[in-house]
Write a structure and sequence with these properties.
single chain, mainly beta, 2 domains, 5-stranded antiparallel β-sheet, 1 helix, 14 strands, signal, transmembrane helix, WSC_carb-bd
Length: 155
């Protein structure tokens, strides 16, 4: 997942010998030095702003890759849902977004890309990872379930 992270600009003073008593101040980006992205995240500087973008390693998320998810696996879902609480579909769905919505539950699950479910009991019928093959619209590096298949996370 990529996030925009703001860092304050630092001021650097430049003195030129040929201009006595003239001080020129220029703003430079603090940017990616040191790298604000934790846990192996990669940092990219924005050219004309204070923004940096963190691309997080798998199972890490958040603006600086500090939010850890425990991936429990790909599970079978049923008409009588394995995670009974459903939030409205989201075009920016991701495990982080779903887990944020499910903050008062033990587990969060993503299904068919845009669906988010919550519950307090882990599903019991594990399925092959290849059956959870929908890309998350809010994080193209992660999977968001499949047809009657749910990727389940706990934090």
């Amino acid at each position: 997942m990529e996030y925009v992270h703001r860092r304050k600009k630092a001021s650097v003073a430049f003195c030129f010998e040929m201009f006595v008593n003239v001080l020129v101040t220029s703003s430079v980006l603090a940017g990616c030095v040191p790298n604000p992205c934790l846990h192996g995240g990669t940092c990219t500087d924005a050219v004309y702003s204070e923004d940096v973008v963190c691309a997080c390693a798998p199972v890490w998320d958040g603006p600086i890759c500090s939010k850890h998810f425990h991936y429990l696996g790909c599970f079978e879902d049923k008409a009588l849902r394995v995670l009974p609480v459903r939030y409205p579909d989201s075009t920016s769905n991701s495990p982080l977004e779903c887990a944020s919505r499910c903050h008062s539950y033990i587990v969060a699950g993503v299904e068919i890309g845009k669906q988010c479910f919550c519950g307090n009991v882990w599903p019991d019928v594990r399925k092959p990872e290849s059956e959870c093959n929908y890309v998350c619209p809010g994080n193209s590096t992660m999977k968001c379930g499949g047809d009657w298949r749910i990727n389940v996370y706990s934090d």
